[in-house]
């Protein structure tokens, strides 16, 4: 039984390398001619990881489900318009998927710090929240999926933000940065910043494989699952390392 990775870009290759390093058999599929994968491409696939493009997620999932795959990790962004379709298809086929804007464990824990910071600084009128994210020049979406998630978490907890669009957010696309996210709170006499910077894609790949392990460890309810339960499980099993 193998892991089949859809997408042969930098992220797909990073996930493949991480899986191979721990002895997992891996198949990588690039973009198929005509835009649809042949069901035979999924022969022997225990689990599928989608690291392709947002516009391909729904069709990739449909092809994998039709071939009998019942465990999926969606490791790409830019598909919110298809979320309901994807969730319905998973439930119809009795399949489960973990999806996240960012599979880095550091980012997942960072997001929880941001929520706590929003509670604390939101109680003080003097501090204004803001968000800055910087990625490589070739990254198409702006703001990033991670920035959107952080903004939504801030808006949910901060009393002066009625929605994520109220948050001052800046996106930078320059150079080759794999990803930097900064959440700040600024007052007249001081600025507080929370920052996470990715050095490469290994952190994302490790989180994707953790999600794959979570799916394979137990029978999960059909449908879409967030990364948070995976993180909770990792913290519970490895409290010191986490």
Number of helix segments?
7
At the fourth level of CATH, the homologous superfamily of the largest domain is: NAD(P)-binding Rossmann-like Domain
Strand content: 15-25%
Per CATH, the class of the largest domain reads Alpha Beta
Can you give the helix content as a percent range? 25-40%
Q: The biggest beta sheet, please?
A: 6 strands, parallel
The tally of structural domains comes to 2
CATH architecture of the largest domain: 3-Layer(aba) Sandwich
Helices and strands, in order, run as EHEEHEHEHEHEEEHEH
Rg over C-alpha atoms, rounded to the nearest angstrom: 19 Å
Poorly predicted segments:
none
In order across it, which strands form the biggest sheet? Answer: 2-1-3-4-5-10
Number of strands: 10
N- to C-terminal separation? Answer: 30 Å
CATH topology of the largest domain: Rossmann fold
Question: Based on CA inertia axes, which overall geometry fits?
Answer: elongated
Secondary-structure-derived class: alpha/beta
Mean pLDDT figure: 93
What do these coordinates show?
There is one protein chain. The chain has 242 residues and is α/β, with parallel strands linked by helices. The protein has two domains: 138 residues, Rossmann fold; 93 residues, Dihydrodipicolinate Reductase, domain 2, CATH 3.30.360. The chain is 37% helix and 22% strand. The chain contains seven helices and ten strands. The protein has a six-stranded parallel β-sheet, with helices on both faces. Strands 7-6-8-9 form a four-stranded mixed β-sheet, covered by helices on one side. The chain is elongated, with a radius of gyration of 19 Å.
């Amino acid at each position: 039984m193998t892991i089949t990775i859809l997408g042969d870009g930098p992220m797909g290759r990073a996930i493949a390398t991480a899986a191979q390093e721990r002895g997992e058999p891996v198949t990588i599929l690039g973009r198929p001619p005509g835009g649809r994968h042949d069901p035979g491409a999924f022969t022997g696939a225990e689990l599928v990881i989608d690291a392709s493009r947002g516009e391909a997620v729904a069709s990739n999932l449909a092809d994998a489900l039709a071939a009998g795959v019942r465990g999926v990790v969606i490791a790409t962004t830019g598909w919110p318009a298809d979320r309901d379709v994807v969730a319905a298809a998973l439930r119809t086929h009795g399949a489960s998927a973990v999806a996240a804007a960012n599979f880095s464990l550091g980012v997942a824990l960072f997001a929880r710090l941001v929520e706590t910071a929003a509670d604390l600084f939101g109680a003080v009128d003097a501090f204004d929240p803001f968000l800055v994210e910087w990625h490589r020049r070739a990254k198409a979406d702006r703001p990033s999926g991670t920035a959107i998630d952080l903004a939504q978490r801030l808006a949910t907890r901060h009393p002066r933000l009625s929605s994520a669009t109220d948050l001052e957010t800046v996106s930078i696309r320059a150079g080759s940065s794999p990803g930097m996210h900064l959440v700040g709170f600024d007052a007249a006499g001081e600025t507080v910043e929370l920052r996470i910077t990715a050095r490469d894609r290994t952190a994302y790949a490790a989180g994707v494989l953790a999600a794959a392990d979570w799916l394979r460890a137990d029978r999960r309810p059909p449908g879409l699952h967030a990364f948070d339960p995976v993180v909770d499980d990792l913290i519970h099993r490895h409290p010191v390392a986490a």
